[in-house]
Write a structure and sequence with these properties.
CATH superfamily of the largest domain: Vaccinia Virus protein VP39
Number of domains: 2
Structural class: alpha/beta
Number of strands: 10
Radius of gyration: 22 Å
Distance between the termini: 63 Å
CATH class of the largest domain: Alpha Beta
Strand order of the largest sheet: 6-2-1-7-8-10-9
Number of helices: 12
CATH topology of the largest domain: Rossmann fold
Order of helices and strands: HHHHHHHEHEHEHEEHEEHEEE
Helix content: 40-55%
CATH architecture of the largest domain: 3-Layer(aba) Sandwich
Shape: globular
Length: 295
């Protein structure tokens, strides 16, 4: 870097006050990399959030400024830190039975009508496409078990994926504090959960529910090494972080993976848009049915 360029960068004002220099240029470089890697868009109104989440990374790495951090994550040597940055900046707000009407719909319109078929060995596949720390796929599993206690012995599987390697690892553990399991019905906790034998005071999802789920890392704007057809896909409160073209791409990629009549569950502030929208029909509050035949 030339000395004149270095002086211009040094003179660029900080956009967040703190122990590390953090300029608008630094923010743009981080936002561009986040968009390229994960499809997530960030406006400069999120600068304080970015600073607060990444400042601990700078401390851990012994860096003096966000300029140094940007140089690292842009370099070939920064591959591991790019993954750490993605983990730090992706949002992981979730809870058991969040938007409970979706699980009622799943029970009444996807699982319930097919009980006899499933008991005879029929196949069912479901995908939690942004599983975070696991509450969503475990809620799906508990909903299944409430109707089919023998589900672990049937051809029923749940795929649970997330871009954040740390939350996927946490989800696999299936261990939660007492305040986090509050939304789970008491009879579900009694029958399908247990006190964690290792983590004092924690609840652990029981083996029956755990056995239904395969947890994997997956980037929604990357390759999808998954096979359909799925009877239901949950992708909730995720695409709101993408720009409109990326949202439309996601909806179009889900479509061929849903079986005829398969359901797509999305977040309360999301809508299916773009060319693939004509292939879906509304089937309830933020629930879409894939057209091509009813189930």
């Amino acid at each position: 870097m030339s000395s004149s360029l270095a002086r211009r960068r040094d003179a660029e004002p900080n956009i967040v006050e703190g122990e590390f220099a953090f300029t608008a240029g630094d923010f743009r470089r981080i936002a561009e990399l986040l968009y390229d890697q994960a499809g997530i868009t960030l406006s400069e109104t999120k600068a304080t959030l970015v600073y607060s989440r990444l400042a601990k990374r700078l401390r851990g790495l012994g860096l003096q400024s966000f300029g140094e951090y940007c140089a690292l994550i842009a370099s070939p040597a920064g591959e591991d830190e790019r993954a750490n940055m993605l983990n730090a900046l992706t949002t992981n707000v979730t809870r058991f039975f969040r938007e409970p009407h979706h699980f009622d719909h799943l029970r009444d319109h996807v699982i319930g009508p097919r009980l006899d078929y499933l008991k005879r060995g029929g196949r069912m596949r479901l995908w939690s496409a942004a599983c975070s720390t696991g509450q969503e796929p475990y809620s799906i599993a508990l909903t299944i078990l409430s109707l089919l206690p023998d589900a672990p012995n049937l051809d029923i599987k749940i795929l649970a994926t997330d871009i954040d390697s740390k939350v996927v690892a946490q989800a696999r553990q299936g261990s939660y504090g007492p305040e986090l399991v509050e939304p789970i019905p008491a009879d579900f906790r009694t029958r399908w959960m247990e006190r964690d034998p290792v983590r004092s005071g924690q609840w652990r999802v029981g083996e029956a529910a755990r056995s239904l789920i395969a947890f994997k890392e997956l980037n929604l704007i990357g390759a999808w090494p998954v096979k359909g057809p799925f009877d239901a896909i949950f992708c909730r409160n995720v695409v709101i972080y993408f720009d409109e073209p990326t949202q439309e791409t996601i909806w179009s990629r889900f479509a061929p993976l849903l079986g005829d009549g398969g359901r797509l569950y999305i977040g309360h502030s999301e809508r299916v848009t773009g060319p693939s929208a004509s292939g879906y029909a509304s089937d309830g509050l933020t629930v879409y049915r894939r057209l091509g035949g009813a189930r």
